UniProtKB/TrEMBL annotation, chains A, B:
<dbReference type="InterPro" id="IPR016166">
    <property type="entry name" value="FAD-bd_PCMH"/>
</dbReference>
<dbReference type="GO" id="GO:0022904">
    <property type="term" value="P:respiratory electron transport chain"/>
</dbReference>
<dbReference type="Pfam" id="PF01565">
    <property type="entry name" value="FAD_binding_4"/>
</dbReference>
<dbReference type="Pfam" id="PF02913">
    <property type="entry name" value="FAD-oxidase_C"/>
</dbReference>
<dbReference type="InterPro" id="IPR006094">
    <property type="entry name" value="Oxid_FAD_bind_N"/>
</dbReference>
<keyword id="KW-0274">FAD</keyword>
<dbReference type="InterPro" id="IPR051264">
    <property type="entry name" value="FAD-oxidored/transferase_4"/>
</dbReference>
<dbReference type="InterPro" id="IPR016167">
    <property type="entry name" value="FAD-bd_PCMH_sub1"/>
</dbReference>
<dbReference type="GO" id="GO:0071949">
    <property type="term" value="F:FAD binding"/>
</dbReference>
<feature type="domain" description="FAD-binding PCMH-type">
    <location>
        <begin position="39"/>
        <end position="220"/>
    </location>
</feature>
<dbReference type="GO" id="GO:0003824">
    <property type="term" value="F:catalytic activity"/>
</dbReference>
<keyword id="KW-0285">Flavoprotein</keyword>
<dbReference type="InterPro" id="IPR016164">
    <property type="entry name" value="FAD-linked_Oxase-like_C"/>
</dbReference>
<dbReference type="InterPro" id="IPR016169">
    <property type="entry name" value="FAD-bd_PCMH_sub2"/>
</dbReference>
<protein>
    <submittedName>
        <fullName>FAD-binding oxidoreductase</fullName>
    </submittedName>
</protein>
<dbReference type="InterPro" id="IPR016171">
    <property type="entry name" value="Vanillyl_alc_oxidase_C-sub2"/>
</dbReference>
<comment type="similarity">
    <text>Belongs to the FAD-binding oxidoreductase/transferase type 4 family.</text>
</comment>
Length: 481, 481
């Protein structure tokens, strides 16, 4: 890979015009650091094509010069997936100008969106048509369709509707040689070989640039009900989830597990919060159920289902939208409260759903035994087998702990997850942040296959280099050179 | 690729034992021809490993000798996908001995099956546990899990539950270098790079050997209701399907479109059949809805939904299981009746669901105009956008028509499908039968990507050669040599 030549930069500037090409430092700076401020890079220019044809031409120019491209949407990666390296050779390819919803068909339950469409804007457009795009996450005001596709994003509604992989019906993409793959037509059945749409989902821009996607819509929400539930164990929590699903069909949209310790952190650090239940419980669940417009409210069914059996220690149904929002605020403030309390290392991990209750308890015990003083704070999407397994530093430790002992804690957590057959990245991806752990734990067959696919589709290695695909081990490097 | 050396054959015989290795002509013959009798091949031996380790060792031996392998399950491919070529160099690798259901967990709704498990046996095991594997097709007594995964099989319940791609939670596979990819753990969230499980689904054995799969189960059926409906147009049929889905949620499992002409063929050629409705209708729909054990029967809701609005010209609900079976027999006898009536060319095609009613009418008119005397007989899975677009020869034509004028008709049909953004293979795959049409119409970007992936993961080209991935055009071949 090479720095772009002046001639190449001139060609790109001519192709894309002043709105689509800049080397201005002030204009580029915000896009050279990830939003959490942990990764910093440099770039030779920022390009922002307005059409797929401009993307294709820009990619062809860069391919001919061996110049690396870092695709970027809302720049909300959790793993440094959209930040260039320090060489300054790369171009940032922003999709933000391709922000058109090409079509939105409520009859067919389908929206065709360009890569730069911001998630919140898609939500609004769907709502206006009596429909809903059933994926949401905290960064919805910035995150774009292209980034959501390329990271196989999840969020709080995965339990019912699945992650992006389930919601994407087709994509349009520019491949690393500049050719256009048109897979936008939403075919429910298509057996013409390897599924390139599925291959590009979650590829983090390392196999090409997603320029548009056909996305599945569902009926708009007519009514919702939110409950806060006190429970004795994670086993009881999962049993409750199964009971709710059996009795309420697909109405349960969210089921978030919260330990008492996490709730205590929120109550201690976040102003205006109060405990939802009168007594303390070892574990809690935040449950949301929804029904489409015209259908009866899910509230009576939820009340009845929560009352059945012996699983629930205590429960309260939000009496208003304001109280429902307050319950959600408790859940969504855990990360902020934890941060205010002191240093912690965070792990976005998954295991098979039935294994999660046992894993939670046993892995927490193992980590707290091996690293005296640390406190595990594990919470999140129990029904997806996806927990934020955070480990807080011993009381009084300063932030330097994260890079030192914290890194050893992370090794141990990822070892435990791998031994349980789980994933070291449930929803955030690998990016540059998890590249080392992925190389260590990804498994020889998987890593070799990923490298082979990357090498085949992007032989010059220009697409988002240094992300997702670990370089071969040193010995192999030597043999190749 | 090379014929296996005597030493290699000896090694395989020693590895696999007499149950796992044969060169006996009588033993091999049934597996050298596809079940429809259109493709014939030769093989140097038939091997049948009993474990994934034996598969891995056999693949390593063949890789070292550059010997091609043709994986085979129930040998029920519709496109010659499991039949070796005429060279006699290949080994047939049968998965039939790996027929164990490793686990079946009704709580987790998950079955882990080895590749050789026959679909009907999985149905029985799930039923015994109060669950159901919601994919079925005519060949269920022979088709195996490995073949169903490798062809991304569909069937009659795709409308509600999707095809194999939706039902496979993870796979275990031996890659072309003999390494084992263990992706069996059913993780609902896993963002560790390119999804190799999705890549292997529908790869027709060209990227490795699927040895086991984790499969999703659903609650067993408690009650079902089957209706036969008379309709004026395909537009009315699709509108009726949407109406049923809106009013009955997920209860509608099948919605098969049948033109009057197809029903006439069945009534003329299949003994014991009778028309379900008193009068003739241009189009018909066979509808099945189902409810799980313990839930109310879907019959009242179906009766009410069929009665609403003006779409339905006439309808009858099956009064007994025998009558329900008789309705299904009408649908399932269309292919046989058509065959008895005379020669026809068949096309397993799809377009976007909302486009199918228009496509059906316009493509039929175009083909009947361009090829005087032919009669389009198009029927099938309207709700999936997947129709068997068959074209019957002019009356009195002999079977030679299929290879002559029939081939021109097929070109025209595939051209029309491609122009409509559809697929020339909705559910049967490419195999060897559709390789030429796929090369002609697959599109440069898609074909180049498929070839690159195939070359990267199977550089020696030993995995099911001559299937699915069209060879590069002649000019490119010359450059390479």
């Amino acid at each position: 890979m090479a720095a772009p030549s002046p001639a190449l930069l001139d060609s790109l500037a001519a192709l894309l015009g002043p709105k689509g090409f800049t080397r201005d430092c002030d204009a580029m700076t915000p896009w050279l650091t990830d939003w959490r401020g942990r990764f910093h890079g440099r770039a030779a220019a920022l390009i922002a094509p307005a059409t797929r044809e401009e993307v294709a031409q820009a990619v062809r120019l860069c391919a001919s010069g061996g110049v690396p491209l870092v695709p970027q949407g809302g720049n909300t990666s959790m793993v440094g997936g959209a930040t260039p390296d320090a060489s300054g050779h790369a171009l940032i390819l922003s999709l933000r100008r391709m922000n058109r919803i090409r079509s939105l068909d409520p009859e067919a339950n389908l929206a065709v969106c360009e890569a730069g469409v911001v998630l919140a804007n898609l939500h609004e457009a769907a709502q206006a048509a009596g429909r809903r795009f059933p994926l949401s996450l905290a960064a919805k005001g910035s995150a774009t369709v292209g980034g959501l596709v390329s990271t196989n994003a999840g969020g709080t509604q995965v339990l019912r509707f699945g992650n992006m992989r389930r919601l994407v019906q087709g994509i349009e993409a520019v491949l690393p040689d500049g050719s256009l793959f048109d897979g936008l037509t939403a075919l429910r059945k298509d057996n013409r070989g390897y599924d390139l749409t599925q291959l590009m989902i979650g590829a983090e821009g390392t196999l090409g640039i997603v320029t548009a996607a056909s996305l599945k819509l569902v009926p708009a929400i007519g009514s919702r009900v939110v409950a806060w539930v006190g429970l004795a164990t994670p086993v009881a929590a999962l049993a409750l989830l199964r009971q709710l699903e059996d009795r309420m069909g697909g109405a349960v949209e969210s089921f978030e597990l919260v330990p008492q310790g996490a709730l205590d952190l929120v109550l201690a650090h976040i102003p205006g919060t109060r405990p939802p239940l009168a007594r303390r419980h070892e574990w809690h669940a935040l449950v949301e159920a929804a029904a489409p417009v015209g259908a009866p409210s899910p509230e009576p069914a939820l009340v009845e289902a929560l009352g059945a059996g012996e699983l629930v220690e205590d429960a309260v149904i939000a009496a208003s939208e304001a109280q429902a929002d307050a319950f959600w605020r408790l859940r969504e403030s855990i990360a902020e409260a934890e941060k205010q309390d002191g240093p912690a290392v965070k792990h976005d991990i998954s295991v098979a759903v039935p294994d999660m209750p046992g894993f939670l308890v046993e892995a927490a015990a193992a980590v707290e035994r091996d690293f005296p003083g640390v406190r595990v704070n594990a919470f999140g999407h129990l029904g997806d087998g996806n927990i934020h397994f955070n480990v807080r530093a011993p009381a009084g430790t300063d932030a330097g702990w994260i890079e030192g002992a914290g890194a050893e804690v992370s090794h141990r957590v990822y070892d435990l997850v791998t031994a349980a057959g789980g994933s070291i990245s449930a929803e955030h991806g690998i990016g540059q942040m998890k590249l080392g752990e992925f190389a260590r734990l990804g498994g020889a067959a998987r890593l070799a296959a990923l490298r082979a696919i990357k090498g085949a589709l992007d032989p010059a290695g220009i697409m988002n280099p240094g992300k997702l695909v670990p370089p071969p081990p040193l010995a192999e490097n030597r043999r190749l050179s």
